[in-house]
């Protein structure tokens, strides 16, 4: 593990921020377990829990916490300077932070989605949901990592993307879905395990290509922005 | 408590030329506000103080030197290489920012070791040990930085900036938060680094600090370079302001009478403790005084330039 990745991981899991990663996955598992315990038909709750909570809230919100946490918090408190004053390619710094963010997001979201899929259908559905969550972890964290270098309010802008773009516009304006990571994740999951519980709105090919594009474009922009990272001028 | 070892800075290899920080016609503006205006300076080995009142542009200059701010105009180079968008310069550059943020969850040793590893040093553990010894942080090396006092954090940050023995070290207000003993130790360390061929630039708005650490100053006032060089020489070049000397002799009154006839003397006050002489020309007066004293048979007990302190120079520059 690189030194940058080590510092990033320790910073991420050593802060209170890490505790914020737990409630949403537990809520997802808890709701699915309650529905299953009451022997409700998955057609009655599966879509709401898996798509409405899992893909629309748990995955993007955890990716937002982690994606902005791995870099944004160091930008905010000024500790990033200690990493930037080293002869390291900015690409290596971004990639190390991106890998930590993807692993943390993927582990935290794929496990509860696997459990929800298992309870709502089968282990195969669980695996499909978990793999889709991993794919979504790449796209979301790359996007939020980039936001933390483009704006001083990455969390706010990230929430606007999740709630307004994906949550509101994505439901009613079909054209916005082509730039919705949530829709890519649903399409990939539905392709891996076709089920009535998932209602894909974009083609799987579009979903895969756009996910890759999100990762590549956002990462390239983040590397470029980090190369031009400026400190505030006069402080004394 | 900390150990009592004297700081001995690592010497540069003999075949390396002095590190040179070079600014050529550098300006930096934010919208319509000009923070730094057409500054040129070249720094060689030794310790230089970057002096100026709050908001003068010192931090902006330091950040441009450290590659954390693009000059709007002009060039900033270290050893001829531009610092902006060039991470390779950090092999030869150490930076201690004014903001004291450090990864609080690491111990001092882990933090400095991480910096050594990111510098890709051959023996990061050995370099870490040496850097911590240099700043007298060996005893607290295994404590989390989050538990440190401001001065201890500052020393840890200096150790991290020095771990790769950079030729150029930039420090923004390095004495902030240090107690007098730590301050003295840091001054000795900077002296030692400068004597060993390192190029050290530190900013400060506290005149006594700069005066004690370095005779060389770069004075920035309102974004412009107001003066550059040895502050005593700068003072002597200010010919429009009389130079003030405190003189004590075997016969002050007779000496005053003889001196007032000299064209280089603008005024004399006779006080209980001696004479206060205002000379319009530094060179002429200092040559005339011993001659006059000899002619008059007066013994000189004391001759002290009383306004050559950095504070006087600084206040003159601000008034200019």
From TrEMBL, chain A:
Record-given protein name: ABC-2 type transport system permease protein
Species of provenance: Actinoplanes palleronii
Coiled coil segments of this chain: none
Transmembrane stretches, start-end: 47-72, 93-119, 125-147, 154-173, 202-223
Keywords: Membrane, Transmembrane, Transmembrane helix
TrEMBL record, chain B:
Gene Ontology molecular function, alphabetical: ATP binding
Organism encoding this protein: Actinoplanes palleronii
Pfam family, one: ABC_tran
Entry's transmembrane regions: none
Protein name per the record: ABC transporter ATP-binding protein
Lineage of the organism: Bacteria, Bacillati, Actinomycetota, Actinomycetes, Micromonosporales
PROSITE patterns documented for this protein: ABC_TRANSPORTER_2 (PS50893)
Protein origin, superkingdom: Bacteria
Family: Belongs to the ABC transporter superfamily.
CDD domains in the cross-refs: ABC_DR_subfamily_A
InterPro entries recorded: AAA+_ATPase, ABC_transporter-like_ATP-bd, P-loop_NTPase
Domain ABC transporter intervals: 21-247
Swiss-Prot/TrEMBL keywords: ATP-binding, Nucleotide-binding, Transport
